[in-house]
Structures are given as C-alpha cells and as structure tokens.
C-alpha cells in the first residue's frame, strides 16, 4: 500500500494513495508497479508530492530488513539525498530513482552501496526464507560453523552427526541427572566411596587393637570415629598410650601374620600408627 505521509503508522485516517500491484527486477533495478488513485495521480501531476518513502521491517537481532511494510508519498523523506520521483518534465524521473532505491535497499539488507543486483536478490531471498521460517515457528538455517560445532557436540555425546535437537537435549539432561545408559553413576560412586571408607575404617581399628591402643570394648566406638574423621582417628591412635599389652587380644576376624614376612601395606599402616617393624614381629605374628 502507498499512503500519504505514513498515516498508516499513526492513529489517524489513512486514505490510500495507491496500491502496489507487483515488485519486479529489471536490469538490476527493483521496480514497483503502482496503481495510483485519482487523487494521488493529480498530486503527482501537479508536483505537490515529490518523494516516495519506504517503511521496512527490521529484525532486532541483526538489524537487517526482512520485509516491506508500506510506501508513502511525502515531501520530507527520512532518507537523505533521496532522488525525487517527479520533476518538471515527467511524472517519473527514470533510472536514477531506481538505482538510488537499489542502493538504499542494499543498505537496509546490510550490504554495501556497491552491491550487485544478484547480491541484493540473494539477500532478499534469505530474508524471505528466514521470515517464513519464523512465522512457521521454525529456526532459520544455521551457519556452517554452527553445524560443525553441533557435529562435534553430537560426537562427544555419542550421538549421530544428524541427531535431532530433542535427542541432544535428552542426552544432556540424562548426563545432568547423573545417569548414563540408565545407571545412576552418582549413586554407584557414593556406594563405592562408602565401601572404601568402611574398609579403611575396619583396617584402622584392627591395627589400633593389635597395637593395644584401644580395647575390644571400644571397637564400635572406634569404627564410628574412623568413619566420621579418618585423620582425627589416626592422630588419636598415634598419640594414645598403649592400654592393652600387644598380643593379648585375640581377633576372630583378623588373620595373624605368619612367618617373618610383613607385606608393604601392613608396614605402611603400622608406620602411621607409630608401631615399629620389631613390635609387629614380636607381638603381631604367630608361629605355625
């Protein structure tokens, strides 16, 4: 639609000056076929209006023009140095006006003033495609670099390169939940840590009993202490005096050391508890 002074954008009566019947590209120039009303034709004939002003829809994301809203007859166009559409000799000025329009259209599309007709048309096609996709609730085609990145993400997630967005989202949510292939990884990890802590606590308590640092009656208390604070219990055992003669405590669940061989793990634990190798051989071993 062609109106007067952009009245369709205002809350006022907005009679039409003409109707755009078609847009076509000829010799590198975009032309509008307009059916003028009698009143508008008379204005143009009398040179009462000299300029045409386009209203373009601009996309906020990248400031590119995505559609033509309307045109308006005006004598105060917003575009600087605009060529008049009428002069003293003819109602249309010809090629200059169309070339200027092409330059302005190229600028609105984010192209340079020296953009060719083919570049302008390609940009227009892209705008039309993206606008149609947005109206249909679809995402516009992703740039090539994003496609490559998506392929890399799919590969890391163990998905196919052409995996759907829903599949990628589901896989990410599965990882966030701590589950892989239906297995609760976090729960498994917690269970393993608990088993390891329980085993370490049993070992520490057993060594403390063998070293005579605690009595059998203190075993449960010592186990709880070791589970709650392994370092604190080790410090306690190191500083605690010997309250039970070594070798006098029989432990049903502890295998006595045999022969004169002491494994490395046992010696490391005894060292932490302040028990010497000689004491282990003297009090912590049994003859066959």
From TrEMBL:
It holds the Pfam family Mu-like_Pro. InterPro entries: Phage_Mu_Gp1. This is Mu-like prophage I protein. It comes from bioreactor metagenome.
């Amino acid at each position: 639609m062609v109106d007067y002074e952009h009245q369709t954008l205002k809350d006022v009566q907005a009679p039409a000056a003409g109707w755009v019947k078609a847009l076509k590209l000829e010799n590198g120039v975009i032309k509008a076929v307009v059916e003028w009303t009698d009143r508008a034709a008379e204005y143009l004939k009398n040179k009462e209006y000299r300029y045409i002003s386009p209203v373009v829809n601009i996309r906020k994301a990248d400031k590119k023009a995505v559609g033509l809203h309307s045109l308006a007859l005006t004598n105060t166009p917003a575009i600087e140095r605009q060529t008049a559409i009428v002069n003293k000799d003819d109602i249309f000025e010809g090629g200059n006006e169309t070339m200027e329009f092409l330059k302005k259209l190229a600028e609105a599309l984010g192209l340079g003033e020296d953009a060719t007709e083919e570049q302008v048309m390609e940009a227009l096609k892209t705008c039309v495609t993206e606008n149609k996709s947005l109206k249909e609730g679809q995402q516009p085609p992703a740039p090539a670099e994003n496609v490559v990145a998506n392929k890399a993400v799919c590969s890391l997630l163990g998905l196919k390169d052409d995996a759907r967005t829903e599949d990628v989202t589901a896989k990410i949510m599965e990882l966030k939940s701590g589950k892989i292939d239906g297995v609760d990884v976090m729960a498994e990890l917690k269970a393993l840590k608990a088993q390891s802590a329980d085993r370490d606590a049993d070992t520490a308590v057993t060594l403390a009993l063998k070293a005579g640092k605690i009595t059998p009656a203190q075993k449960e208390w010592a186990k709880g202490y070791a589970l709650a604070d392994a370092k604190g219990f080790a410090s306690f055992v190191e500083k605690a005096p010997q309250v039970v003669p070594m070798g006098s405590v029989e432990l049903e669940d502890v295998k006595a050391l045999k022969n004169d061989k002491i494994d490395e793990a046992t010696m490391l634990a005894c060292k932490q508890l302040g028990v010497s190798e000689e004491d282990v051989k003297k009090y912590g071993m049994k003859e066959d």
